[in-house]
């Protein structure tokens, strides 16, 4: 293996190297552009302004809350998909992963029609509990969790499939209930997978735009997260938009770098 | 159950629209090389052909779509393509090099973004004006009759963000009325603000008179006196880097022609000359 790799680098055909470098440039250049065009001198002022701080704080809180929701609901869902057999499981699995490929704005429309004041569920929530989700901070969490949870489910399901079920069976023969076996044996076994899924979900929630602006609206301090602030800043203050984008870029790079080192590295 | 039937109608309408859109797209590309001579109107303009890309404020969507069709009929061989959106976002994309021929903005301020970048071929001209109105769900369930009613507790209001003209105008009107209003959302263009009223998610929104009219009875409009202090001027200009300069000039001419103005006034826009105060120059 090692020998082949060593030889390969010295003999990379130009026909592959050229498009590969172009591809690299294509992906990295826009990000470089952001860094080059950044108003570095005005940056400290931009980043410490109350509005930016407000949007950043809200983004961090909502993304973390959305990840918590995804963990509480997503881990059991992943377990259901990986460890049980029931009719229609493949269909359910496809539906669970749908938000991965669905345009987020479509998700936002769907959420608005179901959980809005006049939605099937939303109407009932409003009349029975006086809860309306659109235009509220919990609404942002709902929108972000909808888009981010599939990332966690996929990751945890993969970890569960890779984990040997015989450990659980052994625990069961020793008298542990299924829940205890899950909690004491399975969960520690798949912890890295859960961690990776949670970080991915968190990063996805942090960057969520379409579903949030459609379902939760845009109001500073309540529902205006960083991506929304970037979008509106771009309309009249591109410098502020660049500054905000840099923050999101830095956070995303940190997350991916952390993931790569811990969980995604391949031998 | 009312909900599900409404969704079904919407789905069917959407499908029909997509189909119609596909068909017209095919039709127009097939006849794009038609003859240009002998058109009834605008005999003075040079022969125009090809595609005219028009960037226009979201509030112009219905009228300009109609004007586009009429323009295509008057100038066989042309296709008018529209990019509707918030004026500020459109201005930014023009300045960033979007291939636009014509820009019709909902405010002189957003047109200025383009003028400042020297992207106008000619001086922008105000062609219509628009007045604000409060849009409320059908039947006005919260009994809103004035701007002040919007500040009542328990009334959910969506405004346009102040970066877009309808938001700037709404802010001017609220200031004129000395009101402090906290909306639940600041929408990125006037149409999305109106949609939130149509869906019943908010109790009111401040939009243009023309949008209420275009909603065709799906929402009710409530006029308010402070609107007179926040009338929006709509400037139009052909663009310096227009890929289709002749087409751009012809389209601007058509919008300003009596025929074009008739379509706009029928939708509720006012002409600059009809207003009592002189229209401020856009430059």
TrEMBL record, chain A:
Annotated CDD domains: TM_PBP2
Chief localisation class: membrane
A GO cellular component entry from the record: plasma membrane
Transmembrane segments: 56-82, 94-115, 135-156, 185-203, 240-259
Location of the protein in the cell: Cell membrane
ABC transmembrane type-1 domain location: 56-257
GO molecular function terms noted in the UniProt entry: molybdate ion transmembrane transporter activity
Keywords: Cell membrane, Membrane, Molybdenum, Transmembrane, Transmembrane helix, Transport
Recorded topology in the membrane: Multi-pass membrane protein
Keyword Protease: no
Function: Part of the binding-protein-dependent transport system for molybdenum; probably responsible for the translocation of the substrate across the membrane.
Family: Belongs to the binding-protein-dependent transport system permease family. CysTW subfamily.
Protein name per UniProt: Molybdenum transport system permease
From TrEMBL, chain B:
InterPro entries: ModA, ModA/WtpA
Protein name: Molybdate transport system substrate-binding protein
One BP annotation, GO: molybdate ion transport
Keyword flag Metal-binding: yes
Entry binding sites for molybdate: 59, 87, 190, 208
A Pfam family it matches: SBP_bac_11
Annotated signal sequence range: 1-25
Organism whose genome encodes this protein: Kitasatospora kifunensis (Streptomyces kifunensis)
Keywords: Metal-binding, Molybdenum, Signal
Similarity remark: Belongs to the bacterial solute-binding protein ModA family.
Origin: domain of life: Bacteria
MF GO annotations: metal ion binding; molybdate ion binding
């Amino acid at each position: 293996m090692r020998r082949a790799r060593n030889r390969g680098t010295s003999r990379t055909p130009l026909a592959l190297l050229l498009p590969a470098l172009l591809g690299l440039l294509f992906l990295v250049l826009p990000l470089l552009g952001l860094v080059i065009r950044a108003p570095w001198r005005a940056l400290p002022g931009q980043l410490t302004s109350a509005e930016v701080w407000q949007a950043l704080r809200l983004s961090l809180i909502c993304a973390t809350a959305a990840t918590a929701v995804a963990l509480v609901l997503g881990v059991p869902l992943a377990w259901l998909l990986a460890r049980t057999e029931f009719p229609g499981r493949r269909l359910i699995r496809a539906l669970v992963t749908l938000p991965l490929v669905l345009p987020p704005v479509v998700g936002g429309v769907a959420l608005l029609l179901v959980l809005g004041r006049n939605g099937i569920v939303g109407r009932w929530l409003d009349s029975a509990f006086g809860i309306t989700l659109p235009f509220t901070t919990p609404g942002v969490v709902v929108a972000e969790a909808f888009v981010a949870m599939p990332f966690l489910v996929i990751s945890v399901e993969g970890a569960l499939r890779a984990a040997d079920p015989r450990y659980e069976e052994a625990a069961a023969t020793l008298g542990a209930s299924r829940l205890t076996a899950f909690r004491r044996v399975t969960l520690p076994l798949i912890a890295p997978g859960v961690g990776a899924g949670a970080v991915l979900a968190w990063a996805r929630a942090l960057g969520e735009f379409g579903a949030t602006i459609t379902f939760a609206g845009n109001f500073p301090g309540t529902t205006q997260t960083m991506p929304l602030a970037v979008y509106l800043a771009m309309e009249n203050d591109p410098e502020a938009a660049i500054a905000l984008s840099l923050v999101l870029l830095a956070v995303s790079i940190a997350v991916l770098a952390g993931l790569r080192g811990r969980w995604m590295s391949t031998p | 159950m009312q909900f599900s039937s409404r969704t079904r109608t919407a789905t069917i309408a959407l499908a029909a629209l997509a189909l119609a859109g596909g068909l017209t797209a095919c039709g127009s590309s097939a006849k794009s090389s038609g003859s240009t001579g002998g058109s009834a109107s605008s005999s003075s303009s040079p022969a125009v052909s090809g595609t005219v890309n028009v960037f226009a404020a979201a509030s112009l969507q219905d009228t300009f779509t109609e004007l586009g069709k009429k323009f295509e009929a008057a100038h066989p061989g042309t296709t008018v393509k529209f990019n509707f959106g918030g004026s500020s976002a459109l201005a930014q994309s023009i300045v960033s090099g979007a291939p636009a021929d014509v820009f019709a903005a909902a405010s002189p301020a957003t047109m200025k973004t383009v003028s400042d970048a020297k992207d106008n071929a000619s001086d922008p001209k105000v062609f219509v004006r628009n007045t604000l109105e409060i849009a409320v769900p059908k039947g006005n369930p919260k009994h809103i009759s004035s701007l002040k009613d919007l500040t009542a507790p328990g009334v959910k209001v969506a405004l346009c963000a102040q970066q877009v003209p309808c938001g700037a105008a709404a802010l001017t009107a609220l200031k004129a009325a000395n009101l402090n209003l906290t909306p639940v959302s600041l929408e990125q263009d006037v149409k999305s603000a109106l949609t939130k009223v149509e869906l019943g998610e908010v109790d009111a929104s401040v939009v243009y008179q023309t949008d209420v009219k275009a909603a065709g009875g799906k929402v009710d409009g409530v006029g308010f006196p402070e609107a007179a202090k926040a009338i929006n001027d709509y400037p139009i200009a052909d663009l310096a880097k227009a890929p289709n300069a002749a087409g751009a000039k012809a389209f601007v001419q058509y919008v300003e022609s009596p025929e074009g103005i008739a379509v706009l006034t029928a939708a509720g826009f006012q002409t600059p000359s009809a207003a009592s105060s002189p229209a401020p120059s856009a430059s």
